[in-house]
Write a structure and sequence with these properties.
By secondary structure, this protein is mostly helical. It has helices spanning about 5-30, 35-40, 50-80, 85-110, 110-130, 135-150, 185-220. α3 runs antiparallel to α4 and α4 (about 85-110) packs antiparallel against α7. The two termini are about 20 Å apart.
Length: about 220
């Protein structure tokens, strides 16, 4: 059975690698020109505020830096048996744990607001298609409808001219007898999120449990 020291070293090595990966993804999304071109080509900003996307990128970078920094302190403290570093590690992990719980609570409180913004964004995009104002909106909805197997913001009746929306057609649709998806994209996206939410919650619980375990193991070494 692994000792408290070996367990802490192993866990913090994983935490350090996780932080490096998070930081790498954040920096890549922020500065890589190919990623920016792909993001712009999908025109996600038509649905989601670009400020929120930039905030998400910045959050990845900050989270990565924090994970690397804290795990390094934990690794050094465990290997060197330095109580000062282990105490600092225990304090930082406690602060991070509190911030994560607070962030989760804030996100849950803004859940209804995010749903309303999604609904408004989809309706505006469909309206732009009906007015034939730009092709970007058409590309956005084609991407969404193909991935989520849906049609329009609330259903196929949203479109003035449905014949041009080939992405609304089901796989078994025929040219002379087209069959369209009846589910609106708003409902399809919300359903997709609700379906995968338990997985996200599970990962969050695992992460919090991992941090609590690290705190316990650190406390054992400080005794």
């Amino acid at each position: 059975m692994l000792s408290s020291r070996a367990t802490l070293v192993l866990l913090n090595t994983f935490f350090f690698l996780f932080g490096c990966c998070t930081l790498a993804v954040g920096l890549w999304s922020q500065y890589d020109k190919e990623f920016s071109s792909l993001w712009d080509s999908l025109e996600i900003g038509k649905i989601i505020d670009s400020r929120n996307l930039n905030a998400a990128r910045l959050l990845l970078i900050i989270s990565g830096i924090m994970s690397v920094f804290v795990s390094f302190i934990g690794l050094y403290g465990s290997l060197a048996k330095d109580r000062c570093f282990l105490s600092a590690y225990c304090l930082l992990m406690g602060i991070i744990l509190i911030l994560e719980i607070a962030a989760a609570a804030v996100l849950m409180s803004y859940r209804s607001d995010a749903k309303e913004k999604l609904r408004v964004g989809l309706n505006r995009t469909v309206e732009a298609i009906n007015k034939n104002e730009d092709k970007v909106s058409l590309n956005v909805m084609n991407t969404i409808q193909t991935f989520f197997k849906c049609c329009g913001a609330n259903g196929p009746s949203d479109y003035v001219d449905l014949t041009n929306m080939t992405s609304c057609q089901a796989p078994d649709s025929k040219e002379d007898q087209p069959i369209y998806y009846q589910t609106g994209c708003y409902s399809a996206i919300i359903s997709f999120i609700d379906t995968h939410l338990p997985l996200l919650l599970g990962l969050t619980i695992i992460l919090i449990s991992f941090q609590i375990f690290c705190l316990i193991e650190t406390s054992k070494q400080n005794i």
